Amino acid sequence: MKKAFKIIVMTIGAFLITAGHSQANTVVYETVDLFQTETFFIDTFTVIDAGSYRATLTDFEFLVPMIATDMIVTTTTDTLGRLRAPGSFNFEATPGDYSVSFYGSADVSPPQLGQYGIQISQVPLPAAVWLFGSGLIGLIGISRRKKAA
Fold first, then answer.
1. Quick one: 79 and 65 in the same domain?
2. Which of 27, 29, 66, 112 is an S-S bond match for 107, by CB 3.0 to 4.6 Å?
3. If DSSP codes are grouped into helix, strand and coil, which group holds residue 34?
4. Closest-CA residue to 123 (of 51, 73, 74, 18)
């Protein structure tokens, strides 16, 4: 009986880990663009689920790396994060509309092409959280069985 209980708890834990990873890393905004010399844009995206999000800026160094970049994620009233070089930052978001703005400049003499990518995605929960939760459920189940006996 104890062996069957352990197998059930381990199966639930494995299921929770798998379920966590399949839902994690939901991309809410993504763009890759090629430009000549200089570009600037502002775009909006919508967050449906509250949680931690990661904004990533990538310079694909198409021919030459960009000499200047700037990416900002904002709400209507607050700046949630800013990058002045390729990289990423995390921010907390609640359901609603957000803005992302980008400026990029490639080498201006002679005119060169630049390519950048922006991705905003949900930060996944670590597997340890799912394992801890399933272990906690198992311990609660064991303690209840001992009290009943």
1. yes
2. 112
3. strand
4. 51
